[in-house]
Amino acid sequence: MSQIRLPIVAVTTGDPAGIGPEITVATLQQKEVYDVCKPFLIGSIPIIKRAMAIKNCDFKINKISKPSEGEYKFGTIDVLETGDYDYDSIEWGKVQKLAGQMSLDYVRKSIELGLNKEIDVVSTAPIHKEAIKLAGCKLAGHTEIYQEETHSDYGLTMFHVRNLRVFFVSRHMALKDACDYANKERVLDCVKQIHHEFTELKFDKPRIAVAALNPHGSDNGLFGHEEQDNLIPAVKAAQALGINAIGPIPADSVFHLGLQGRYDAILSLYHDQGHIACKTLDFERSITITFGLPFMRSSVDHGTAFDIAGKNLAGSVSMIESTVVAAQYWKMKQR
Q: DSSP H helical segments within 116-183, as ranges?
């Protein structure tokens, strides 16, 4: 059997006023990253040089115009730029229209490369929602941008931390609205999408647990009706399609059971239900994978951290994990 090649990973440097440049440089300072993939940065060399000075990085910069020109050698940082900007006007830790535009340009370049099949994976550093809004972007964030601009049917968000894999019916939505949003149709759609994506990852009959909404899964209607009205019918409908759906499982135990290996994936019903479990387990190693796109996309699960940007205080564990884990998931698809 032929050996699987290393995937080409585009690492976007994020908002240039935030910690993105620092943590992406720090990621490419790790030999382990080059052991599992061929990484390069999408960013601006003057901003990257500024970050390299902060990180005491003396690596060589290799400017490329396309991924095929990359050297992909530890000790060299391959950089693909997106244009010329007024770099001197970018200040650490401030919301700026130009910074928002630059971060959008980096993301859109990664989409262009992904659609052209010049890269296999994108690992994204954080962008700032207010900054991209100032730059004219009407979408909420990374996931929405990637889904819309790749014309994908869905952008399915998964948190990965250790061996826990958590999906979400809803994300950025008021909690009282999220409870109503998790109806039978939407839960079933999510379960079907998870089943499809995990089958692509070569899971055999993936075990998909659906989290309950109410305490104790409502104890047969004592504490709410959402399980009987929506969640149980969604699970039964999925099972009728041959999907190994399980639940609803009370939310105070489903994540513990998932960590023990009982399930391959867990569908949480709203943002904080899954986020709290994952980030309490290991905040720094919690990362996001977006399924449903024409290419693999991953991201850190933290923001631009303007308060510490440019101070060499930002940890790079999540950025490293985002890059390495995404490469591993890509390899799973190639088996």
A: 129-134, 142-149, 175-181
